[in-house]
C-alpha cells in the first residue's frame, strides 16, 4: 500500500507493502470534516460472544507479493521481523499473489510469522492515483464499504484465518481540505467496520497520517461509530515507534497500532533479499481458523 509521493478502538501489529504500492505521506493534515451517517444493511452478528483478539508487538514488514515460504524460513531466524502483511483481497491489488494460498498461510504461521491481512479496493473520491482508478461514490459510500467488507471476510475464511482476525482497509493518501471526499472515506469506513463485525472479523484501517488517519481521528472525536478496531498509519519519519505521533493522540487506538515508518528498500538477511516497507507493530494480527 504505497502512499502517494511527496492500513471500537483496537490496535494493529505488522507490516505492509512495498514501494510499488505505498507512497510518501503528504505534509499537511486534513481539516476535520462533518460526517453524515450512511445506513448499511448488515447481517445479524454470528455470535453474541466477544470476538477473540490476536496481538503482536515487534517489527514487521510489507511486501507487494507474498514472499516464498523458503525466503520467510530464512528471514524468520536471520531478520529482526516477526510479522508480514498479506494482500488478501481487493479489486485494486497490484502485485500477483500466486503464493497466497491456505497452504502457504498454514506453513508460514507454523514458522511463527504473524500475518496482517490487507484489502485494496475503492479509493477516496478525490484520490490522485492513476494506478488505482476505482473510486468511492460519496452517495453510496456506506453501502460500498459494507460490500467490500463481505469480500474481505470471504477471503480471510478461504485462507483459513478465523474469527477475530483483522483485515486492514488500504486507503492511499488523498488531497486534504475536500469535505465531501473526507466524509465519503469516513462513511465507507463505517460501513466496512459494521459489516466486518457482523461477519465475525475485526476492522483495520491503513492510510497516510495526514489524510485518512486525520479524517478518522476527527470522526472519532465527533462521535462517529463504529470506527476501526485498529489502525496502520504511514508516516515515513524513520522512527520505529507507535506512540508520540503528532496528529494521533495517544488515547486513541492504544495497543492497536501499526506504524509504517520508512518506504520500500531492499534488505538482505541470511543471503536472502526482499524489497520491504518496515513497520513497528503494537496491535492486531490474524488468528487461525
Could you please describe the fold and organization of this structure?
This protein has 5 helices and 9 strands; from the N terminus they run E-H-E-H-E-H-E-H-E-H-E-E-E-E. It is 24% helix and 21% strand. An 8-stranded mixed beta barrel has the order 1-2-3-4-5-6-7-9, surrounded by 5 helices. The chain has helices spanning 69-78, 102-111, 141-159, 179-199, 212-221; strands at 55-62, 81-89, 114-119, 166-170, 202-208, 230-234, 257-260, 265-269, 272-284. The longest helix is centred in the middle third of the chain and has 21 residues, at 179-199. It is an alpha/beta fold. Helix 1 runs parallel beside helix 2, helix 3 crosses helix 4 and helix 4 (179-199) packs across helix 5 (212-221).
Radius of gyration from the alpha-carbon trace, in angstroms: 17 Å
Label the overall shape.
Answer: globular
Write down the overall mean pLDDT: 87
Indicate the low-confidence ranges by residue numbers.
Answer: 2-47
Oligomer state equals single chain
In order across it, which strands form the biggest sheet? Answer: 1-2-3-4-5-6-7-9
Helix content: 10-25%
Strand composition percent: 15-25%
The biggest sheet amounts to: 8 strands, mixed, barrel
Number of helices: 5
Topology, number of strands: 9
SSE succession: EHEHEHEHEHEEEE
End-to-end gap: 26 Å
Class from helix and strand fractions: alpha/beta
